Amino acid sequence: MARKDLEVLLEDNMEGKTPEEKPAAEPTHEKPAPRPGPRPKKAEVGPRFVVSSSPHMHDGRTVSQIMRFVIIALAPAALYSIYIFGLDALRVILISTASAMIFEAISQKIMKRPVALRDSSAALTGLLLAMNLPSTSPWWLIVVGNFFAIVIAKQLYGGLGYNPFNPALVGRVVLLISFPVHMTARWVTASRFGTDAVTTATPLSQMKESLATLGHIDIAFGREEIFDLLIGNRAGCLGETSVILLALGGLFLIWKRVISWRIPVMFIGAVWAMTGIFHLFDPAHYIDPSFHVITGGLFIGAIFMATDYVTSPVTKKGMLIFGAGCGIITVLIRLWGAYPEGVSFAILLMNAATPLIDRYTKPRVFGAVDTKAAA
Amino acid sequence: MGSGRFFGGVHPSYNKGLADSSAIVEMPLPERLVVFFAQNLGVPSQPVVKKGDEVKKGQVIAEAGGFVSTPVHAPTSGTIGSIDIYPSPVGVDAPAAVLVPDGKDEWFEGCNVERSSEGLGVKKIKEMIHDKGIVGMGGATFPTHVKLSPLAEKKMDLLVINGAECEPYLTADHRLMVEHAEGIRDGASLFATVIGVRNVVVAIEKNKPDAIEVMCKAVVGCQGFSVEAMDVIYPQGAEKQLIYTLTKRKVPAGGLPMDVGVLVQNVGTALAAYEAVRYNRPLIQRVVTVTGSGIREPKNVLARVGTRFEDLVKFCGGLEGDAAKCINGGPMMGVAQYSLDAAVTKGTSGLVILRQEEVTQFVSDACIRCARCLEVCPMKLNPSALSIFIEKMRFEDANEYNVMDCIECGCCAYVCPSRRPMVHHFRRAKAEVRKLQRKTG
Amino acid sequence: MLTAVIALAALALLAAFGLAIAARVFAVPHNPKADEIEEVLPGANCGACALPGCAELARRIAEGKADIDACPVGGESAAHTIAAIMGMEFEGGAEREVALVLCKGSDQVAAKRFFYNGIYDCNSAVLVFGGDKACTYGCLGLGTCAGVCLFGAIDMVPGGLAVVDPEKCTGCAQCVAACPKGIIKMVPASRKLHILCSSHDKGGVARKHCKVACIGCMKCVKAAPEGAITMDNFLAVVDYSFEIPAEVAAECPMNTIIVTGDAAGACEEPAAAAGGDA
Question: Could you tell me if residue B1 is inside a domain?
Fold first, then answer.
């Protein structure tokens, strides 16, 4: 073929002229990584300086650093879940994290992308999914969830930065719809090591149950119950139990400027305000708003899932709208939906609205001419 | 005076200690000088010398090519060795005259003669500033006489002398204020006379307390003069941000400082203008901060325009072995050089040499939409969305998202965890948008 | 159960009627010939005809507003088929042209001025000093042309150099417009001898920058038929209206000239050319 001739000619040429510098054997079709920096060669031959566009400084923060901060922020709640649910929780966390990383590596290999486990984003997704599973989850359930999270929701869309939906939540929701029994009916109370685990229901399903059978809310919500809920002495997914530790993690992230306060505060605030209004009007059918805030997956959702960079708005106003929207949808599902809990669905729905929110909250450029004032 | 705090900004490590206490030293004449003909933003100057010509110090070697243009003068006496293409420090290869000094350093007739600046008319002062090739010395090299000619309908009421020097590493303006406060003050008075304003503010970032002190002393007794100490944040010295900090006035997007009645001039420009008017000295030398970890002896050098970077580096002790990046200007907005053959121009405020381990490489990973760039962008743009548009060649969308308002300060790229070459993207988009605009008229 | 089936069936029937009526009422009148022509056109919507898409060109041809050979990509074969559809004669138009990258300076032979670190795109790279190659005329090798080629005809060979496959090239010239260096030219597909250099640098400079640069020695000019190769500011340029014998390639001391073969095996000289002394 003619082109082959051309290439052969070119290569012959290279061989003839510079035998020591034969063309590198690497494939060239894929987008190459950044050009290598200067060789540590002092000779004057060849280029010496790196030339790039400005700026020539960087504050040093990297994607993997951000992911590690989030993992660190999650760590106390994860460790605490092991304390209350025992080795079962550890099993779930390990299987989930490992399978997420394996799926990531495999799909990146197959899609001929550079394998980027070092950015820790897969590990974080696995950990987040684990935090959203009951401690009784069988191993296959965890693996299937991670398959959907990493392969379907993330890598098929182009990998980190391109996924429209929060991968861990896609994994959780797929499991929730496909395996409702495993996901919602096999709760155990906090067992602590040694004590026997007792099958029970989550506070939110207890509430729905009471509403369905008695026609009104009949749940004790006194000081003792609040204390139990706060420290995580209740049934639920691994990560949703310990509200205090999750909040501490959130403060850590805000302090490290990893996330902004906007989404979590608006999310939790909207849930509290909306359920509060209903509670004021009809306390028999609508429970105290504080109950809604400290039960279910609200804290882990608001702090760790809704704030996922890729799937949440980038503008300040957009973050406020996004957080409020998540809160409102959560309440709608909790109060009138079939599921006792709506945080996951709420966040996924708002994920879908993110591009729209970003477009309509475009920040006004500094010194934007006010057309109204001018007219 | 109301003081604002502009939106966004970053706090890079300033590294000014490398050179901020070393006094300005004059550099001896090098063996040859490379003087670029295009030394200002706008219309390039037209060369009026040819190979073999003898020139005197201060003689015009290139004339203004239009209104937005200034003449270029010979930095010393000698012979024009050749005229050829050299790597200009602003990022293109451009024609330059090689001047071989004869060592006598003789002034051209009429130059360097002291005269009184009393009673000079506005027109005369502007003419002198133009004839002596004065341009903005903060780095932008915009012809000063153009800035001194605001439209008649704009009511000017404030002159700001910009001594913020918010770029990391650079200390040239700092030293200039410490050592030549009176000259700067007198240059500022000239500007104030020309545009007819009473209030003059010398704006200095708080990390230069000695400069603030000296400047304060210099303006004692000057009607309408004041010195403002400003918070240390990059880009405090950018015109629009500086004006907002001092007056809370917002320069309209796409507008100029004169739209809000303010003129901003760099301290170096003020001094150069003063010397042009008072001593009839053309702009043929400037203070260049040669600094960075890649240089052995960081210094503030008074160098002739046309001094090759190679000679500058030699004068400052030479490069460290692993020097890997050479920047004309500061590290946030400066232009990386590929060769030390480039030479000092009127806009060269510094030469920063970075070592291998300090060079940050752009890698163009996918944007993870962390929104850090939105938090720091002083122009309140959405750099994240912009860079994604531009990657997909959607330049019209980029235009709609105000890419043309980008001031290329580099804050977005400075904080980007995916190490995306944001400013590079925006430069590309600006070029494409201008092309589109030309096409559609 | 039965009610559900009936209800659904009724619904389907209703919708079908609705669609059928809508299709009649809102039918857009169009030329059946245009459909036929569109079938023949390549369907790449590449823009080579300067119209928005193949469908638009098909419509114009059917209406007689465009030439039957207006699609350079479809070439002669498409023109013949379209002529048959239109009931016209096609007597053969201009010769097929293919794109050619006039540079041979891969990283192995061409020097670099600096280590470029930035956007992997030629149009962006030229914004910093015009690119990292010492030769300011040469191919930057970042593959912008390959990116715009809808037919996969451009390969980036190892060492950063774009090479057009004349077999796959359809002559749409999108790459010509995309190249910031302007070194991609359209050449007649039948011509086999090419001078792969665009450098107007003087001989010594060009040689320093690239081991396969045209140094303006004029040996090929003398060897070729009068006027077939001319000098343009230190660069030998082929005039493709001439047929140049393949032996001329062997004259080049820098190996800049290549001779491509075709399936007919017209060329057995490349080995000799490649062996030429520097």
Answer: no
Considering the domain architecture, whether residues B176 and B72 belong to the same structural domain is answered as no
Residue B63 · residue B48 · CB < 8 Å = yes
- DSSP secondary structure of B314-348: HHTT-B-TTEEEEEES-TTT-EEES-TT-B--TT-
Q: What angle do CA A20, A26, A31 make, to 5 degrees?
A: 130
Q: How far apart are CA B370 and CA B375, in angstroms?
A: 10
Q: Per-residue confidence of chain C (278 residues) as pLDDT tens digits?
A: 789 999 999 999 999 999 999 988 888 777 788 888 888 888 888 877 878 888 888 888 888 888 888 887 877 778 888 888 888 877 766 678 899 999 999 888 999 989 999 999 999 999 988 888 999 999 999 999 999 998 899 999 888 899 999 888 888 888 999 999 999 999 998 888 999 999 998 888 899 999 999 998 999 998 998 889 999 889 999 999 888 888 888 889 988 998 886 433 333 333 333 333 33
SS3 C99: strand
A-chain residue closest to B424, CA distance: A53
Phi-psi category of residue B161: left, alpha or beta, with phi > 0 → left and psi -120 to 50 → alpha: beta
- Same domain? For B170 and B273 the reply is yes
3-state class (DSSP) for residue C210: strand
Test the C interface: residue of B424, B425, B434, B436 with most C CBs within 10 Å: B424
Domain boundary among the residues B235, B250, B279 is at B279
Distance CA B341, CA B325 (A): 14
Q: Which two tokens stand for residue A148?
A: 């959907």
B78 in any annotated domain: yes
- Is residue B363 in a domain? no
What is the CATH number for B23? 3.10.20.600
Residue B92 contacts C, CB cutoff 8 Å = yes
Six token digits for residue B357 = 């381990």
Q: Is residue A1 part of a domain?
A: no
| Residues of B with Cβ-Cβ distance to A158 under 8 angstroms | 366
Task: Enumerate the residues of chain C whose CB falls inside 8 A of the CB of residue B362.
Answer: 117-119
Is residue A58 within 8 angstroms of chain C, CB to CB? Answer: no
For A338-350, what is the HEC assignment?
CCCCCHHHHHHHH
Distance CA C116, CA C4 (A): 68
Do A158 and B366 lie within an 8 Å CB cutoff?
A: yes
Instruction: Judge if B295 and B262 occupy the same domain.
Output: no
Give this complex's ipTM.
0.87
Cβ atoms < 10 Å from Cβ of C32: 9
Chains in contact with A, where contact means 3 or more Cβ–Cβ distances below 8 Å, are B, C
Interface of C with B in 96-155 (CB under 8 A): 113-114, 117-121, 123-124, 127-130, 132, 136
Helices A63-85 and A87-110 pack at an angle, to 10 degrees, of: 150
Residues B333 and B314 in one domain: yes
Residue at a domain's end among B259, B279, B299 = B279
B155 alpha-carbon distance from chain centroid: 26
- Distance from the Cα of C248 to chain B's closest Cα (Å) equals 34
Task: Tell me whether A360 touches chain B (CB under 8 Å).
Answer: no
In a domain, A104, yes or no: yes
Distance between CA atoms of residues B226 and B217, nearest Å: 10
Q: A252: domain CATH number? A: 1.10.3430
- Distance separating alpha carbons of residues A167 and B238, to the nearest angstrom: 41
B55 & B69 share domain: yes
Q: Which domain holds residue B159?
A: 122-279
> Structural domains in chain C?
29-94 (1.10.15.40), 95-187 (3.30.70.20), 191-278 (no CATH)
**In this structure, is residue B392 part of a structural domain?**
yes
Q: State how many domains chain B has.
A: 3
CA distance B264 to chain A (A): 17
